[in-house]
Amino acid sequence: MTPISARCKIEMLGGLRVQIGERTLTRFRTQKTGGLLACLAYRAQPLTREILIEALWPEGGPEAGRQSLSQALTSLRRELEIGPPSANGTTDLTSGQLLRADRYHVHLNFDLVTTDTGAFEVALRAAEQYAGATEAMEARRKAVASYRGELLAGYDAEQIDPQQTWLMAERERLAGLYRGALQQLARTLAESGDFDGALAYAHQRLRADLFCETAHLDLMRLYVAAGRPAAALEQYRELEALL
Q: Tens of pLDDT along 196-227?
């Protein structure tokens, strides 16, 4: 898969947004329709219809769940400009389709689709593998630049993950990776003597978790190292007020 040739980019950090050529989609028929697309995009693997029904529509019976899934798939096909299903309700798996569905499974065509969550994690894994500090730092910079906000911000977690099996846990996991990358960037820049850059990332980390005592303490240490003890004292007072 080559991201340069991909037709569709699905962004889930900071909200759900789909870029298809010149078109940008931010609204879907229902939250659960958007949740279905996000679930397929985030997990990046074929999922059975039963799993999707249980994950998104557990409150009704099997028949009601199948109907809800069918309606959501029809809506997504229309939004993504995908051809209509065949007479028996399945979809011909042609290479140009973004959404693929047969009688048992549903998945996205990742030869044509990229995701910001995937790019975020790939960049962080690359940072861990690079031997050079410069390459690792650039990979982390790329990762944090792609993090626009929490996973599926604005979506009601109970609406698209009624059984709470993945969304809340993944929101916190990705947010933790983001904060960790910011912390590492601040430390690397401080070690190289770039205190302005280090302070910028330290402030960004603090904005991501205002009540994190460690983030406040790291910022104080950076102020002291940069020769700004008054700013460190002011930061201490801010932490004291918060606590």
A: 999 999 999 999 999 999 999 999 999 999 99
- Cβ contacts of 122 within 8 Å, gap of 6 or more: none
- C-alpha neighbours within 13 Å on the C-beta side of residue 137: 15
CA dihedral 180, 184, 187, 189 (to 10 degrees): -130
Cα 191 to chain centroid distance, Å, stands at 30
- The amino acid present at 41, given as its one-letter code, is A
Q: List, for residues 143-163, the tens digit of each pLDDT value.
A: 999 999 999 998 888 888 877
